[in-house]
Design brief:
The protein is α/β, with parallel strands linked by helices and about 250 residues long. It contains eight helices and 13 strands. Strand 7 and strand 8 (about 110-115) form a beta hairpin.
Length: about 250
């Protein structure tokens, strides 16, 4: 969309890793798969690892930081919340950067990154709004969170691209073979978004300007891509928005 290229290299409980590329500038959001896999998948989409200008970490769970030592090899600065750095291993001290909610960091001449708080069982989890200054395009990245509050909606308002989790269908979680403690965590306000929660958030964000939506971080056991897609489409249709006409939707699983 308008010059900003999105590549979702990995998504889900087995690892999360996303690139945003504009011209010769590229940033990596999360590094939740092995370093060698990140390198390979970058090459697969035509990006050299040494083109990455920075890495943004949403939170320090393993499926978001497994390959973050990639930063050391290519001397890439890594941004994360101050609390998250307490449990992020393997990044050289000189590459560590701290960012907090409401703070904006400039990345080279192309990107401006503003962080916002999310709700997950981590120390200081963050979402990001990334502005491609050259192409006047904004992308919101909202991954692991148990709810979307008014502050988050305000932070993500007016974006052209939304990368957001649609993790589960609650009834599938409740009838799953997960222990009760895991079910409770997933369904809690510091767990993950259900399809309906995601649809409700997008209902307050989408303006029918041709926005691109990526539904990510789907549970392989407790969701279905078609179910996630239909839930979002049905909610937006009630607002008069039709997929392919007023917005674009892609489910990544």
């Amino acid at each position: 969309m308008r010059g900003l290229e999105v590549n979702i290299l990995a998504t889900g409980s087995y690892g999360n890793c996303i690139t945003l590329k504009s011209g010769d500038s590229c940033i990596l959001i999360d590094a939740g798969i092995a370093k060698t896999k990140i390198e390979k998948r970058l090459f697969d989409v035509g990006i050299r690892p040494d083109e990455i200008e920075t890495i943004l970490i949403t939170h320090a769970h393993g499926d978001h930081i497994k390959g973050v030592s990639l930063a050391n090899k290519y001397r890439i600065p890594v941004y994360a919340g101050a609390g998250e750095w307490k449990t992020i291993p393997g990044v050289d001290e000189g590459l560590r950067r701290t960012i907090k909610a409401g703070e904006t960091a400039g990345i080279g001449f192309t990107f401006g990154v503003t962080a916002f708080d999310t709700h997950h069982d981590a120390m200081q989890p963050l979402g990001y709004v990334i502005e491609d200054i050259i192409n006047d395009t904004k992308c919101a990245v909202c991954l692991d969170t148990g709810r979307v509050d008014d502050y988050m909606l305000h932070a993500m308002q007016g974006c052209d691209i939304y990368i957001i989790e649609a993790n589960h269908e609650p009834k599938m979680v409740e009838t799953s073979d997960y222990p009760l403690s895991v079910q409770t965590r997933i369904l809690s306000d510091i767990g993950h978004l259900s399809n309906q929660q995601t649809a409700d958030a997008l209902n307050r964000l989408i303006q029918g300007r041709g926005e691109q939506i990526y539904l990510t971080h789907l549970s392989h056991k407790n969701n279905l891509p078609t179910l996630a897609q239909l839930t979002v489409e049905n909610v937006l249709r009630k607002q008069g928005f039709k997929v392919e006409k007023h917005y674009q939707l892609e489910v990544i699983s």
